[in-house]
Amino acid sequence: MQPLEMGDPMGAPALKAGHVGINVTDLDRSTAFYRRVLGVDVLGSSAEADRRYAFLGRDGALLVTLWQQSGGVFATDRPGLHHMSFEVPDIADVRRAESTLRELGVEILHDGVVPHGEGASSGGVFFHDPDGTRLEIYAPSGADTAAAPTSGAPTCGFF
Length: 159
Known about the structure:
The chain is α/β, with parallel strands linked by helices. Helices cover about 15% and strands about 35% of the residues. The chain contains 2 helices and 8 strands; from the N terminus they run βαββββαβββ. The protein has helices at about 25-40, 90-105, and strands at about 20-25, 40-50, 50-60, 60-70, 85, 110-115, 125-130, 135-140. Strands 1-4-3-2 form a 4-stranded mixed β-sheet, with helices on one face. Strands 5-8-7-6 form a 4-stranded mixed β-sheet, with helices on one face. The longest helix is centred in the middle third of the chain and has 13 residues, at about 90-105. The chain is globular, with a radius of gyration of 17 Å. The two termini are about 35 Å apart. This is VOC family protein. InterPro entries: Glyas_Bleomycin-R_OHBP_Dase (IPR029068), Glyas_Fos-R_dOase_dom (IPR004360), VOC_core (IPR037523).
């Protein structure tokens, strides 16, 4: 197999991440979960029997799309999405999300807010959505008051 040739980065268009699409088993349940945990609005949706979806975002900007097209649970042992991460401005916002998750009875991994790794100030809270998709809400700083749960590796890589 030939290695890919990299084009001139100066001639390449600027890229930024867009929205993420997630397959879910129960659109209503997942929509309620993401709205409550992320504080997003429903920007559009369809309730047609074979075309159920919801567009979720803030201030008119699309963040997540939910597609009711799944009959199983998120497979961590298959190629594809590892986890989704959502950045918030500060650690107080992470702690508010943690509180909401606890109110909802969601299992929080690593027992709360933790840094991204040894010596890192950035960090957050790690959990699963109703279908088992791995999620993270983090802040760029302020998580260094707890010990890193994974020695010698990124926290977000092993949950």
